[in-house]
Amino acid sequence: xxxxxxxxxxxxxxxxxxxxxxxxxxxxxxxxxxxxxxxxxxxxxxxxxxxxxxxxxxxxxxxxxxxxxxxxxxxxxxxxxxxxxxxxxxxxxxxxxxxxxxxxxxxxxxxxxxxxxxxxxxxxxxxxxxxxxxxxxxxxxxxxxxxxxxxxxxxxxxxxxxxxxxxxxxxxxxxxxxxxxxxxxxxxxxxxxxxxxxxxxxxxxxxxxxxxxxxxxxxxxxxxxxxxxxxxxxxxxxxxxxxxxxxxxxxxxxxxxxxxxxxxxxxxxxxxxx
Length: 274
Prior knowledge:
The chain has helices at 10-17, 31-68, 73-81, 110-134, 150-158, 189-209, 211-220, 223-229, 241-273; strands spanning 21-28, 95-98, 106-109, 139-147. The protein is mainly α.
């Protein structure tokens, strides 16, 4: 990570790491491509849903025609084998409006419109993919390097690759694609330093102030002390012993477990920022 701009080319990286390099992938900014792919997937799911709905409706209508006996069994078989049987005109094709919130705008045939949109966005995705493959896209400050052997990778990991501090670092080895936080690949060295101090400061503040809700939860277990401080809660003393026992025994434990379960969630969210 933190690869300088003048190092963001394969020739320069091969000079740095030597002949042991097998392949190099310089990451590029894929935000626009990701949006297009996400939109394409949504259109594909909508098209699949519309066609499935239409097929099920056509099948149901065809079965009703056969049951009513509107046409003979032999003719019905011939009709079913056709692409456009005579009763197909009675089936209502799925439609929707193209416009704001799907309420205003022109009413279109969903299947035909989605197929046309899907074909259009497929071409856009192919064009953007070609740009990334040919190196026309904007590069990010992270690079993946594959070496001939594990020994070569270990040597490269432990070798100083740049004369300026915080450049060409941090470096990781043996990382699978699922473990990569792709949104953090373009973080510069100073952004990581700032985020590191902010996260550590946030966790320190969290440790100090987490004692406040923990103390409140602990105070619930001492009902007599709590009712003395807060007179409007004196009605708790008049409740049956079973309910009082649940409030004093079970409720604080459950609240404390819930409170503590939030700690790893908050820490994970902070870690993802780094």
